[in-house]
């Protein structure tokens, strides 16, 4: 009962209409966090774009300086020296036609799929398999590259993909609550800065309209847009 009372007190302090600084929002989310598992700090950004129009799409990659706190499983389509480099960099699975057949059989437990340019003839046959899961290698995202070694290191080291949803919202995890305040703030700054810089040519009016922070089990708190560089 005491735990419920404490949580109720914390929730009572939260005003859903107040604009919090990042530091204040993080403190309140920590106070309300579960003690049973390490929750993830998550950010959501409402943008003034309509992704149904190609010139208003917001998509890319950003490296979170403190990492994500998650284990990222990476599959790489490569042959020869590139295959060896990918394995040495920490790829979980490397192959060519054999990897394609494995994925066609339903083995898709990966967070990132990377390919060298010469392998796209093989990877192209997996469009209907990888596409719906957002795993299709894409040169614009750096997942089709001759430098698979660096691509694997980036994926394992805290690089995350962002893509605006139909409602104009982008969301991402920023790390675990076990991270230090400084590390979470660095990740927040890197992520929001990347979104601001990715403003599409077709966007009209105010670009970043709302930013909120939450945790896996916590409430959503609005963040003052002054915290988002360039907003």
List key phrases describing it.
231 residues; alpha/beta; 5-stranded mixed beta sheet; 3-stranded parallel beta sheet; 32% helix; globular; ribosomal protein; rRNA-binding; translation regulation; Ribosomal_uL1; repressor
Helical/strand content category: alpha/beta
Number of helices: 8
Give the overall silhouette: globular
Secondary-structure element order, as H and E?
HEHEEEHEHEHHHEEHEE
Radius of gyration: 20 Å
What is the spatial order of strands in the main beta sheet? 1-10-9-2-8
- Overall helicity: 25-40%
Poorly predicted regions are none
The total of beta strands comes to 10
Q: What's the mean pLDDT score?
A: 91
- Percentage beta strand: 15-25%
**Could you give the distance between the termini?**
43 Å
The largest pleated sheet is described as: 5 strands, mixed
Q: Describe it for me?
A:
This protein has a five-stranded mixed β-sheet. The protein has a three-stranded parallel β-sheet with strand order 5-4-6, with helices on both faces. The model has no long low-confidence stretch (mean pLDDT 91). A hairpin with a 5-residue loop joins strand 9 and strand 10. The N and C termini lie far apart (43 Å). Helix content is 32%, strand content 22%. The protein has helices spanning 2-12, 22-31, 80-89, 97-104, 120-123, 127-130, 148-157, 181-197, and strands at residues 19-20, 40-47, 59-63, 74-77, 93-95, 112-115, 159-163, 169-176, 208-215, 221-223. It is globular.
